[in-house]
Amino acid sequence: MTRFAYLLLLLPLAACNQSPPKASAKVAPVIPGPDLATLTDSAAPPALLAYGRQYPGSEVLIKTRLGNIRVKLYDDTPIHKANFLLLARKGVFDETMFNRVVKDFAVQGGQTYGARTIRLKRYRLPPEIRPAHFHRKGALGMARYDDEQNPHRLSSNTDFYFVVGEKLAPNQSQAMAGRPLTPAQVKAYATVGGVPSLDGQYTVFGEVIEGLDVVDKIANEPVESDKWPVHDITMKVEVVK
């Protein structure tokens, strides 16, 4: 009887000494699209156009500690649109932050600092400047180097900005634009505000449809002498539509 009880006690102990089954290794999901490391100025446009046709999208959500910004991307700037969708889906923007804040002008994001790096080649995008898309408050554009260094006005692939600007009288906006403005554009600059001096110089490829107040919050953050925010404003970007 005693021996039988002893055997029963050993069974659970033996089970406890068995090695637990090995957990299956987690495999990172494969995000479709071109290999970012292989893209160049010449290879990027056709690759991005093909990607945009195969994996369309129209809206993205940019999440920050100050709130969320929902953005609509324009169909008639297909290369910039596809590029933004691709980088958002691959998580590239999640490694970046808003790195330049100029009150009453614009807030710019897409850069990193320190040990954080963007793991992709710095290809550029051909301009898709459309007269109908102007620099009203809330416009989404892509930054670039100035004309002296970049006469063809090729856009950065990651450095984007939201226009803040100021409200302007019709004669002010027309003088700053350096080109004829439509009545609707003059009205927008007067009632909403913006930076007409950027019109025709940079590609505008989207606009804020929710969260313009968050753009204002970013624009009012304290900054260092180089316009970098004192407190990091990191972001998470996802395609929502």
Automatic annotation (TrEMBL):
**Record's keyword annotation contains Ribosomal protein:** no
| InterPro entries (UniProt xref) | Cyclophilin-like_dom_sf, Cyclophilin-type_PPIase_dom, Cyclophilin_A-like
The highest taxon in the source lineage is Bacteria
PPIase cyclophilin-type domain location: 66-235
Q: Which UniProt keywords apply?
A: Isomerase, Rotamase
Q: Which organism is it from?
A: Hymenobacter montanus
For this protein, what is any one GO molecular function term?
peptidyl-prolyl cis-trans isomerase activity
The record's EC number reads 5.2.1.8
PANTHER family on file: PEPTIDYL-PROLYL CIS-TRANS ISOMERASE-RELATED (PTHR45625), PEPTIDYLPROLYL ISOMERASE DOMAIN AND WD REPEAT-CONTAINING PROTEIN 1 (PTHR45625:SF4)
Q: What is this protein called?
A: peptidylprolyl isomerase
- Alphabetical list of SUPFAM superfamilies matching this protein: Cyclophilin-like
Give the matching Pfam families. Answer: Pro_isomerase
Q: Does the keyword Isomerase apply?
A: yes
